[in-house]
Amino acid sequence: MICPTCNGREETIVLACGPDGCGFRVMPCGTCDGTGAVDDRYPTWKQQGRLCKEKRCMPIYHDLKEMADLLGFDVVTMSRMERGLSDPASLLLLLEA
Ligand SMILES: [Zn+2]
């Protein structure tokens, strides 16, 4: 499906700050990694990923890396699952256990 963040344009405009100050910059879209498309299951994954994040943060906040280490995921994979960029089903199962 067409990426809902960039609407298939593959880029997003972000406010970025560096040694030369702050300004708007065109960056590859972070949702679709600059491809303009996401998996058709993205809306479902995003909803499930949000639930995973809620379970990690409520009622007691757990750091993403700390929880990833505990559950045996690498932090990048777990972050992608929480954002709906990859299937969070296995994470959700562990968090609901
Ligand atoms: Zn995109």
Summed up:
The protein is an alpha+beta fold.
Helical content band: 40-55%
Describe the main β-sheet briefly: 2 strands, antiparallel
State the secondary-structure class.
alpha+beta
End-to-end Cα distance, whole Å, is: 32 Å
What does this structure look like?
The protein is of the alpha+beta class. The protein has 2 domains: 1-38, no CATH class; 42-96. 41% of the residues lie in helices and 16% in strands. Strands 1-2 form a two-stranded antiparallel ribbon. Strand 1 (11-18) and strand 2 form a beta hairpin. Helix 1 runs parallel beside helix 4. The longest helix is centred in the middle third of the chain and has 16 residues, at 42-57. It starts with 10 loop residues before the first strand and ends with a helix. The mean pLDDT is 94. It binds zinc ion. Residues 3, 5-6, 29, 31-32, 36 line the site of zinc ion.
Which helices and strands appear, and what pairs or packs with what?
Layout: E1 11-18, E2 21-28, H1 42-57, H2 64-71, H3 75-82, H4 89-96
Antiparallel strand pairs: 1-2
The structure holds zinc ion.
Essential attributes:
binds zinc ion; two-stranded antiparallel sheet; 2 strands; single chain; 97 residues
